[in-house]
Specification:
InterPro entries: YdhG-like (IPR014922). This protein is of the alpha+beta class. The chain has a single domain, classed as Aspartate Aminotransferase, domain 1, CATH 3.90.1150.200. About 40% of the residues lie in helices and about 20% in strands. It has five helices and six strands. It is globular and about 40 Å long. It starts with a helix and ends in an 8-residue tail after the last helix. The mean pLDDT is about 90.
């Protein structure tokens, strides 16, 4: 069930962006279910859809009118998540510093790789001590 404030946020996105972001939301929910994470919380943080679990680090995503051709999936910049993604996936993704994966409007999502990144984030507190997060 879509959180009411998140649903309202989705209604503000251009139609094609909303479809892409719904795909990312669905991936987050699917990965959480596959990992047995039943305490996933969906809310708005800083005006952006946000997903977190007790054993993980939060994931947010958004599109902004100031960068209309891109949308972003944000990870906690105080983690080693983006650093690990760069090591494992290299140029499969476009990165914004140590906090975001950048996607271009209309781009096909690398679903398997993104699902894996989501999994690492949702389980981060359990795996953060492992080299390359256990990979």
């Amino acid at each position: 069930m879509l959180n009411c404030s998140v649903k309202q946020k989705f209604e503000t996105y251009p139609k094609d962006i909303a479809i892409s972001l719904h795909t990312i939301r669905d991936l987050i929910l699917r990965v959480a279910a596959q990992e047995g994470i039943s305490d996933l919380i969906e809310t708005l943080k800083w005006g952006e859809p946000s997903y977190t679990s007790k054993i993980g680090s939060s994931i947010r995503f958004d599109w902004k009118a100031k960068s209309p051709e891109q949308y972003y999936v944000y990870f906690n910049c105080k983690t080693t998540l983006i650093e690990t993604f760069k090591e494992v996936y290299g140029n499969i993704f476009i990165y914004e510093g140590n906090r975001a994966l950048v996607f271009n409007r209309g781009q096909a999502l690398p679903v398997n790789e993104l699902s894996h990144c989501i999994s690492l984030s949702l389980r981060y507190k359990k795996i953060k001590h492992l080299p390359l997060l256990g990979l």
